[in-house]
Amino acid sequence: ATPTALLVGTGRGAQLGILIKGPEVLESTRRVDTVVLDKTGTVTTGRMSLVDVTPAEGTTAEELLRLAGAVEAASEHPIARAIARGGDFPPVSDFAGLEGLGVRGRVEDHEVYAGRPALLRDAGLTVPAEVGRAVEAAEAQGRTAIVAGWDGAARGVLAVADTIKPTSRDAVAALRRLGLTPVLLTGDNETVARAVAAEAGIDEVIAGVLPAGKVDVVKRLQADGKVVAMAGDGVNDAAALAQADLGLAMGTGADVAIEASDLTLVRGDLMAAVDAIRLSRRTLRIIK
Ligand code: ADP
Ligand code: MG
């Protein structure tokens, strides 16, 4: 491949809304056979909304929202923004963001937790059966269930909904036509992940992966002989994006994700990933 022809390829990429780190990137793009897609913010819009509030017995919806909203107001996560939207919350101290699990902080005289049920259990809070049922009901509808609790027990469930991007389904179908296998990867739970995968037309799902585990998923696929493209948008995707044979960052995502990647899809649209692969194949065919 002559450098000049590859540079022509990268110029065409810019026109398509794809920023390519260097001409050599087109080579790895061409060989990819597996595309790992992060769920939140990549396949979905990541603009979540709070759709349901279910307090446990002895707690009101107002109290649940007020205390959970107060800790979430200190977090940048899309889930946090949905829960803390628009409200006027009491101040939080000793805030801690527990990556891939949830948040914790002191609000008034309570140590408040909000996140996965496992976060609360690990912190020694009891999770009443009615809270467990509310989690299952939310997840069965493809929603992410956030449990909030304080003073020794889970106090209720906040259900958050996300929607897939309008082009995700077409992009997945086009990736398949190019001979690639799409895999959905997420820190979210299996039930929600399956619902999103079905909507996007993806068969393979790897769910419940902690942020540090995403890179191991990519390594495992590579050890199986796959040539892996990874598309992601979050801080928690950066290591996996760097490990992948081809890292694709959403232009709408975190700076560290963009820095760790080989290609940036400027508009955050997966259809541009399809264009990038087509472009690399075409460019390298011309050069041969
Ligand atoms: P994804 O891989 O889909 O981008 P994350 O790794 O960011 O998801 O988060 C995984 C899970 O951790 C979420 O589904 C949620 O249950 C929990 N979580 C993460 N951040 C928060 C937060 N700020 N508040 C509540 N729960 C959170
Ligand atoms: Mg994400």
UniProtKB/TrEMBL annotation:
Subcellular location: Cell membrane
Key words, A-Z: ATP-binding, Cell membrane, Membrane, Metal-binding, Nucleotide-binding, Translocase, Transmembrane, Transmembrane helix
Keyword Translocase: yes
Main subcellular localisation: membrane
Similarity section: Belongs to the cation transport ATPase (P-type) (TC 3.A.3) family. Type IB subfamily.
Protein name: Carbonate dehydratase
